[in-house]
Amino acid sequence: MNGCCPWCAKIAGRYVYGDEPHDVFRRHDNCDCTVTFENGRKRQDVWSKREWEAPEADAGAVERIVLTEEQARKLQEKHQLKRLTNGEKHDIMNIRLDNIKTAVTGSPISEEVAEYIFSVLAEQRDQFKFDRVRVLSLDPKIVIQTDPVQNGTFYDIVMNLNSAFLGGKTVEQLDKEIADSDVSVINSLREAVIHEIYHARTFDEKNIGEIKAQHENLEGRQILGISPTAMKNGFECIAESGVLIERGKVEKIPEEARELLRLYLGVLI
Fold first, then answer.
1. Residue 216 neighbours by CB distance under 10 Å
2. CA 160, CA 196: separation in Å to the nearest integer?
3. Cα 236 from Cα 264, distance rounded (Å)
4. pLDDT band per the 50, 70, 90 thresholds, residue 210
5. 3: left (phi over 0), alpha (psi -120 to 50) or beta
6. Sign of the CA dihedral 48, 49, 55, 57?
């Protein structure tokens, strides 16, 4: 786009999905550049989720930007600097299975549980919604926690695995314990991960101003009809609704919650 800043101009172009630079999905404050997902003739605006169909002649054309040697060096230095300043060996951009395994090493959380959590994240490539993973000892009632941590203009989306709940148990034991919950719609470890995925989707690629605006709009929002957890605030309502969506129980989502899904995730049900 004409007149865009050097930061945006550096990554402007078209990429094969999965091979795009990480920063293509990030925006700085007051940025109005667009990111469009293409699948044949189908198009979707990444930010607004608006969909349309391109003319047949436009389908299939894929171009890649080629960085100059200087641009490539600066981009590499940027990523290396972020790794060096994160302070934990497993803290690198986006979660991989090895990151979760490394995080649980030396903790009471088993590798079996780590592998299972990653398998749920990977079902729809949602591991890319998280930047880091760490193990913490939290309130024993918490299974997993999604924590946006400021990193410059943006936030790192951190997945906190609660050793006080997950530690010393198998996936089967966790499923049984979670199934007894009377405060949330989740009834298994899988659905606990899905709950956090919807939190991460809400925060994903938002800059500081956008997340602050979300907090102003959602923190005091209470919606009846889903669960006690969903009544805490709009963030929890979205996450609980996400579990119901993945379970195929959209009829249990009240209209006010559907409006939040539309506004903050572009989900129409």
1. 9
2. 10
3. 13
4. confident
5. left
6. positive
Q: What is the pTM of this model?
A: 0.67
First to last CA, the chain: 33
- Tens digits of per-residue pLDDT, 22-53? 666 666 666 777 778 776 677 777 766 677 78
List, for residues 224-257, the tens digit of each pLDDT value: 999 999 999 999 999 999 999 999 999 999 999 9
For position 207, what pLDDT does the model report?
83
Q: What is the 3-state secondary structure (H, E, C) of the chain?
A: CCCCCHHHHHHCCCCCCCCCCHHHHCCCCCCCCCCEEEECCEEEECCCCCEEECCHHHCCCCCCCCCCHHHHHHHHHHHHHHHHHCCCCCCCCCCCHHHHHHHHCCCCCCHHHHHHHHHHHHCCCHHHHCCEEEEECCCCCCCEEEEEEEECCEEEEEEEEEHHHHCCCCHHHHHHHHHCCCCCCCCCHHHHHHHHHHHHHHHCCCEHHHHHHHHHHHCCCCCCCCCCHHHCCHHHHHHHHHHHHHHCCHHHCCHHHHHHHHHHHCCCC
Strand 42-45 versus strand 36-39 pairing type = antiparallel
* Separation of alpha carbons 178 and 165, rounded Å: 10
Buried b vs exposed e over 62-88: b needs ≥16 C-beta within 10 Å? eeeeebeeeeeeebeeeeeebeeebee
Residue 131 CB neighbours (<10 A): 25
